[in-house]
Recover the amino acids of this structure.
């Protein structure tokens, strides 16, 4: 089968399409015939060597939507089941940007019935990141939350889920995203580049990785949640500092599927690329300015 991999770190041109054996599922695993797989910033980071692995061949792709083709022992999934999943982990031989992917059974969930495979593939990493960041923030209904980078993949789902959980949500993004974010559940909007209020929010989820600049709007004793471990600011004023390390979670992903079917979560796709053009997809991601995920279709 074909898979997108890197054997050297660098620019989008480092992405190669290689022929590899079709992986076999072990106990507790399923093999998925990939219908679509989103391209995320973490893939660009892996390609660039942020997570190490020099001299190895590294598979790309974390998100997946497709159909269960075969299973190992001890799983409840059956061939033909339509699923989504998250293949976390760095420096793995194969990712989901491939014709087939093997995932642990507890990393997948039923695909949303209202979404086609292309849009379903954009859901797992971003929605799980948003949900788990909110869990870390541990705010109660009625408390105030600032979401930076609110129009991005993780940020928009954070706004949607925070609104669903009863938080008072302020979205920080480009002015052109104001109306979109109001439709997704924001109570207030702050245009990027304008001064931020001081000590105004019970918590912040900093998907834009603003660091200290995103800490100033948090009240004393509040919560700051970063989305890139190691990039969070130093604690001050009794603010609790934490960083997301997203994990696959079948039960949580199943709940997110339910919310997508209810219209709580909106999956956004900007463009699709065939697997053969994975390097071009990485270049499009590097160009920036996206309002939705890029998705690779084998």
């Amino acid at each position: 089968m074909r898979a997108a991999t890197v054997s050297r770190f660098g620019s989008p041109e480092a992405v190669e399409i290689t022929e590899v054996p079709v992986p076999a599922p072990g106990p507790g695993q399923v093999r998925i015939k990939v219908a679509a797989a989103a391209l995320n910033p973490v893939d660009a980071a892996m390609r660039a060597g942020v997570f190490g692995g020099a001299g190895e061949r590294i598979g790309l792709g974390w998100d997946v939507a497709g159909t269960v083709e075969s299973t190992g022992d001890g799983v409840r999934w059956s061939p033909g089941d339509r699923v989504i999943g998250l293949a976390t982990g760095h420096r793995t031989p194969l990712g989901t940007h491939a014709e087939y992917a093997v995932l642990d059974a507890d990393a997948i969930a039923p695909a949303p019935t209202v979404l086609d495979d292309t849009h379903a593939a954009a859901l797992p990493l971003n929605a799980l990141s948003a949900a788990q960041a909110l869990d870390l923030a541990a705010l109660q209904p009625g408390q105030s939350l600032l979401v930076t980078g609110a129009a991005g993949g993780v940020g928009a789902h954070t706004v949607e889920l925070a609104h669903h959980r009863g938080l008072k949500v302020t979205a920080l993004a480009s002015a052109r995203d104001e109306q979109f974010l109001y439709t997704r559940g924001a109570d207030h909007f702050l245009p990027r580049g304008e001064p931020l209020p001081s000590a105004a929010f019970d918590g912040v989820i900093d998907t834009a990785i603003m660091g200290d600049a995103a800490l100033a709007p948090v009240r004393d004793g509040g919560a700051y949640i970063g989305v890139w471990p190691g990039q969070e600011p130093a604690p001050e004023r009794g603010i609790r500092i934490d960083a997301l390390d997203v994990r696959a979670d079948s039960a949580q992903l199943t709940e997110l599927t339910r919310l997508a079917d209810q219209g709580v979560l909106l999956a956004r796709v900007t463009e699709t690329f065939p697997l053969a053009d994975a390097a071009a997809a990485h270049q499009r991601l590097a160009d920036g300015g996206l309002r939705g995920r890029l998705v690779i279709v084998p």
